[in-house]
Amino acid sequence: MRVAVVLALGAAVAGTAGAAPRPHLERARLGSVEATFSYTYNRAKFRFANQHLTIRRAGSTRFSARLRRLCDYCDVQPANFWTSKRSVSIRDLDGDGEPEVLLDLYWGGAHCCWYTEIYRYAGTYRRLSHVWGNPDYKLRYLDGLPEFVTGDDRFAYAFASFADSTWPVRILRYRAGRFAFVTTAYPREIGRDATRQWRWAMARKKAGDNQGILAAWAADECMLDHCAAAFATIDHLARTGRLHGEASAPKYMKHLRRFLRRTGYL
């Protein structure tokens, strides 16, 4: 997951002697489809500008437009700029032989928010924007086609500070221009995430807030139909002094049940 390194690096270079905004060009190609993402970056002001995407098919330009902000306060930053990787890519996400153009972006802030624009060709290119929030995603081939593996951003701050929050795994499938949530179709991935969450929570069993991590672990367990056992385990942790956080154990358990029910886990 990408974190606040963006701001840290921005502060580090802000003191550098000012210079004219530097143009950047990123290209991706798959078959007859080529995407070009261009922008400028002003190191002195830590500012991106002139973000533009062009898509060509068989040598002919079929899409060319300046990128729009998702909101008034949002920026349009290339998500992978600080890792020196491309933020534009091309994948056939649904296996129909027609590749989609993916543009990974960041709208600015301490650690939020990451989002992706997907351009699908259907006579013309149509855009779908999806906001990931605090976590980003990884494309993984779980059943022959790529799936978007991310975390449920609704858990950020829900039980603890951001630094003490984690997210249960969330898996999305892109088909014919739409996203669908398919997490429960992959119990092995859920089980792996539950194991990670439990280890992180137990690493804090003597000190530190683990209520946010246990909430994510409980959500994973509920997706595996282990809700009752998960709540029994958390109750045991509370009775043995291994549940740590701002909320009292009864208040935490009540909030957790309501939250998991409201978000569809319980």
Description:
With 266 residues, the protein is α+β, with helices and mostly antiparallel strands. The protein has two domains: 5-135, no CATH class; 137-266, no CATH class. Helix content is 25%, strand content 34%. The chain contains five helices and 13 strands. It has helices at residues 5-14, 187-202, 211-223, 227-239, 249-262; strands at 22-30, 33-42, 47-57, 60-66, 77-78, 88-91, 100-106, 114-122, 124-133, 138-141, 146-151, 169-175, 178-181. The strands form three sheets. Strands 5, 6, 7, 8 and 9 form a five-stranded antiparallel beta sheet that branches. A hairpin with a 7-residue loop joins β7 (100-106) and β8 (114-122). α2 runs antiparallel to α3. It is elongated. The two termini are 26 Å apart. Mean pLDDT is 91; it is low at 3-17.
Query: Main beta sheet, described?
Result: 5 strands, antiparallel
Briefly note the structural class of the backbone.
alpha+beta
How much β-strand is present in the residues? 25-35%
> How would the global form be characterised?
elongated
SSE string, helices as H and strands as E: HEEEEEEEEEEEEEHHHH
Q: What is the overall pLDDT average?
A: 91
Q: Taking Cα atoms only, what radius of gyration do you get, to the nearest Å?
A: 21 Å
User: In DSSP terms, counting alpha (H) and pi (I) runs of 4 or more, how many helices?
Assistant: 5
Ends distance: 26 Å
Q: What is the tally of beta strands?
A: 13
- Helical percentage: 10-25%
Residue windows where pLDDT falls under 50 for at least 5 positions:
3-17
Oligomer: single chain
What's the number of domains?
A: 2
